[in-house]
Amino acid sequence: MSPGHWKSTMVVQGILWILYGVLLQPEPGTATMPLLMDSVIQALAELEQKAPATEASYTASSWLLSAQDSGSHNPLRRFLLEGQTLKTIKLDLPSLSPELQGLIEEVARHSVQNGKEYGVVLAPDGSTVAVEPLLAGLEAGLQGPRVVNLPLDSTATPPDAETTFPDIGAMVPDVRATSPGLRGVSPDATFADVGAMSPNDRAADLDVGDISPDIRPDQASSPDTKANPPTTVDSLLVVTLARDLGLNFLQGPHTQSHSELGTEGCWDQLSVPRTFTLLDPEASPLTTAFLNGALDGALLGDYLSQAPEPRPPLSHLLSQYYGAGVAGDPGLRSNFRRQNGAALTLAPALIQQVWGALILLQRLEPVHPQLQGMNQEQLAQVATHATKEFTEAFLGCPAILPRCRWGAAPYRGRPTPLHLPLAFLYVHHTYVPAPPCTDFLRCAANMRSMQLFHQDTRGWDDIGYSFVVGSDGYVYEGRGWYWVGAHTRGYNSRGFGVALIGNYTAELPADSALRVVRDELPRCAVRAGLLRPDYMMLGHRQLVHTDCPGEALFNLLRTWPHFNTNVKPRTTRTASRRSKRKPPPMTL
């Protein structure tokens, strides 16, 4: 690397360490920016403008040490991101604006307390993102592809013993990385392919080394159900996702937690957001916002680790990622983080990373209350269970934006609960709005427009559909999983009504929207016990006299596996048995 390129990289790394370092110098009472990703990008841009005039006299690791001296917030991340002796740029912290210091103080650490989530911001695509794992991924990516050799003298059982994994057995969603920046993965891998790492020479102590940008330490895999303990971990995946994923499923010394992943929430306001309240007050720390930030950090870190010098300014990179796409690639943007994340974190490799993170954490914190005395088999079971839940319940499901996110008006009247699981999924197109919506602002406006029409013109209590699918990569919650809709007259209580925004008389929706309706949404509903495994998918026109869901879409629908041509308008059988599930309060 040339001296100029090295200095450019150090400047960029210095920006990240400053974001951590500002934490220790809050100014009580100072004004702060709205909790928006645009504010974080603005903060980065301000730091980048100041960086060239500063002196490169302090190491990057010193910033992390200074930020985390009080409380030892994350010793594993601290160790991995200090692995190389890198010089950084020192900025005069008082020269930063009070607004910037207040923002960094609020968002640099993630936590869940009393039903509120802290350290999160609202992104332009409508998603909420935890900043801490995002920054960690950026820093790991700037340091380049790196592995840590795991030690022999772990507190766990000797690492040469084979461990049997539980059967996982679910298929990886058929998604492919759309960005050339993602490292090579096989689109045909399944969750059942529990991988074994290639035997490597083990280091007697913790050792940090460089690896080729084209080779990951976890790429060797085998469909066999036995695997050797990992000998290395990838610092990028550990600091963004693997550590937290493993710890989330450790409730006690030998007990796996069964807390659900991916809880959503609502902002107090969307224009100037300040407070984020979770929909489940007992949510685990691995909320949707945290997992969004972890995936964004992993994807952007992976991109940075392979990007040629000079690397782009972080403010530009984030603007592109949360906008139209990195380097003009619309596939590498936040809307499609789950699809790209599934390609980057295939289950066999992720099991090894979670397992390795727990082994490394045992070494760094021998008295860790959740890990003390656990052997390799127990660690492997935790890693496998955590990976299964993450890949099936989060990566394998579509991102559903709650009603509060698109600005829903209150429900009029009292909603009627559904008797779950249901047996049908009815497919609609909205017809009006006719153009597909490809960004959050347009999709949210379409949702409000349809709700207004359904309530004021049709006289319904709410928007009629259970869910609405945009061409922006997101599903928008209508009446949701638990309440009877107004979408298919005479059959509203028997199935979910799912509409795709647009007129599909002569053309088809985006592939991502089709995949959601055909595969992701019903698969997740079946897994959650909301839809029967033998469910049938029907077009609106099969039950009601209408052209919906449009000729082009209906002709495609007829080729889908769960489509049934034999259902007649007046002979649809009773949907399902009653569920013992108690519907949650409706979020209005």
TrEMBL record:
Position of the signal peptide:
1-24
Q: Which InterPro entries match?
A: Amidase/PGRP_sf, Amidase_domain, PGRP, PGRP_domain_met/bac
Ranges where the Peptidoglycan recognition protein family domain occurs: 398-544
**Bias kind Polar residues: ranges:** 219-231
Q: Where is the composition biased (Basic residues)?
A: 575-588
GO BP terms in the entry:
immune system process; peptidoglycan catabolic process
Q: Where is this region: Disordered?
A: 193-231, 567-588
Which Pfam families has this protein been placed in? Amidase_2
Domain named N-acetylmuramoyl-L-alanine amidase: residues: 411-550
**Top-rank taxon:** Eukaryota
Please provide the record's keywords in A-Z order. Signal
Molecular function in Gene Ontology: N-acetylmuramoyl-L-alanine amidase activity; zinc ion binding
Family stated for the protein in its record: Belongs to the N-acetylmuramoyl-L-alanine amidase 2 family.
The protein's name in its UniProt record: N-acetylmuramoyl-L-alanine amidase
Q: Which species is this record about?
A: Vicugna pacos (Alpaca)
Gene encoding this chain?
PGLYRP2
